[in-house]
């Protein structure tokens, strides 16, 4: 059972990595793993892994390690929840199309992109990897109909800002933001920002200082 305490953001950021590792281990027929094996696979030191897991109670046993099947179920609920989450994607350009073609269910079997939106009449009406592209004018009715909770924004920065407050009003609880702008939402909406230019700068920085 989850302890009633604040979990550090750094630990929360690592939960999807742990879930992915245990899911892949399960798919490979592995029944149990040690913190050392997790450490080597994810390049996270064993002490950090044990500390992360301690926030969630006794997940393993000394001398036995961690039961893969039990941890898949546990982290699936922590990372994904127990029900299917419908995701919408707004902006079907090069990046948006690439995300539509990515098989999210391979790792997250309770997450699916249900529908995409765009303003380009040449794209609207197309189906990409089983996902229909609709006119952004239909956003309100579709979001309410499918009870979407998560949105992915792959649109120009100011467009994303303008859309974000509307998404919150429609009940969106989480946004994966690929724009470089800060979104206009309250603290009730969880935003995860992915600025590719910043990520590239970080990569170059690490390359320079690791050599």
Automatic annotation (TrEMBL):
Subunit structure: Homodimer.
Family the entry assigns: Belongs to the transcriptional regulatory Rex family.
Gene3D superfamilies named in the record: NAD(P)-binding Rossmann-like Domain, Winged helix-like DNA-binding domain superfamily/Winged helix DNA-binding domain
The organism's place on the tree of life at top rank: Bacteria
Biological processes annotated in GO: negative regulation of DNA-templated transcription; response to redox state
Alphabetically ordered keywords of this record: Cytoplasm, DNA-binding, NAD, Repressor, Transcription, Transcription regulation
Molecular function GO terms recorded: DNA binding; DNA-binding transcription factor activity
GO cellular component, one term: cytoplasm
Family matches, as SMART domains: CoA_binding
InterPro entries: CoA-bd, NAD(P)-bd_dom_sf, Rex_bacilli-type, Rex_DNA-bd_C_dom, Tscrpt_rep_Rex, WH-like_DNA-bd_sf, WH_DNA-bd_sf
Residues in the DNA-binding region annotation: 17-56
Name of this chain's protein: Redox-sensing transcriptional repressor Rex
Binding site for NAD(+): 91-96
Cellular compartments annotated: Cytoplasm
Pfam family, one: Put_DNA-bind_N
Key word NAD present: yes
Residues in CoA-binding domain copies: 81-182
Main location: cytoplasm
Function statement: Modulates transcription in response to changes in cellular NADH/NAD(+) redox state.
């Amino acid at each position: 059972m989850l302890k009633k305490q604040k979990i550090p953001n750094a630990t929360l950021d690592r939960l999807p990595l742990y879930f992915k590792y245990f899911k892949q281990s399960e798919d490979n027929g592995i029944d149990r793993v040690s913190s050392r094996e997790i450490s080597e696979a994810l390049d996270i030191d064993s002490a950090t892994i044990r500390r992360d897991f301690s926030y969630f109670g006794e997940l393993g046993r000394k001398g036995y390690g961690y039961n893969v099947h039990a941890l898949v179920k546990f982290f699936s609920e922590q990372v994904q929840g127990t029900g299917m989450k419908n995701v919408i994607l707004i902006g079907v350009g090069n990046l948006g199309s690439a995300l539509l073609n990515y098989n999210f269910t391979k790792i997250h079997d309770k997450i699916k992109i249900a529908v995409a939106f765009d303003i380009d009449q040449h794209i609207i009406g197309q189906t990409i990897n089983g996902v229909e592209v609709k006119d952004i004018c239909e956003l309100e009715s579709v979001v309410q109909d499918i009870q979407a909770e998560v949105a992915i924004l792959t649109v120009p920065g100011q467009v994303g800002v303008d859309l974000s407050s509307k998404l919150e009003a429609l009940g969106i609880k989480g946004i994966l933001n690929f724009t470089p702008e800060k979104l206009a939402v309250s603290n009730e909406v969880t935003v995860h920002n992915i600025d590719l230019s910043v990520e590239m700068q970080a990569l170059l920085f690490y390359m320079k200082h690791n050599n």
